[in-house]
Design a protein that fits this description.
Layout lengths: L10 H4 L5 H11 L14 H31 L1 H4 L2 H59 L2
């Protein structure tokens, strides 16, 4: 975990008066580039997918409840012939199919964006590690 300089971090954040989520939203709208957070709360791609797929799973539960209610409505005599309800059911069904696919696509694009932005650091770290390993072997073999 990275230690932050208390002079750089706002004291309200240190006292937990400002939540990280709110600080990140404010930071994204006031700083450039817009997609870099103030303080990243994802330390690996597993946590990124876990946090984003959690809210998607919760949303899917609500969509399933609405679709179930619409199926029951379509089974009744009163709503079976209602053209407006038929159109609403059709529209929501299409949304229920495309919405999760698009949301997951956005999460995958976010992960790809993070990977591309971290790639120079990862390549540089690998080069440094290889150089340290070579230097370590040379210094160990020297008398």
């Amino acid at each position: 975990m990275h230690e932050r300089d208390p002079d750089v971090v706002h004291p309200r954040f240190l006292r937990a008066e400002l939540r990280l989520f709110r600080i990140n939203i404010i930071h994204r709208f006031t700083r450039l580039p817009p997609f870099h957070p103030y303080l990243c709360d994802w330390h690996n791609y597993g946590s990124l997918f876990r946090d984003n797929l959690t809210w998607m799973a919760a949303a899917a539960v609500f969509v399933v409840l609405v679709l179930t209610a619409m199926v029951v409505g379509l089974a009744t005599q009163q709503l079976q012939g209602n053209a407006t309800f038929q159109q609403a059911s059709y529209g929501f069904t299409v949304f229920a199919m495309l919405g999760p696919v698009c949301a997951f696509g956005l999460v995958a694009l976010g992960a790809l964006f993070n990977l591309v932005s971290d790639l120079p650091l990862l390549i540089g770290e690998q080069r440094n590690r290889t150089a340290h390993e070579i230097c370590g072997k040379v210094s160990q073999s020297a008398p």
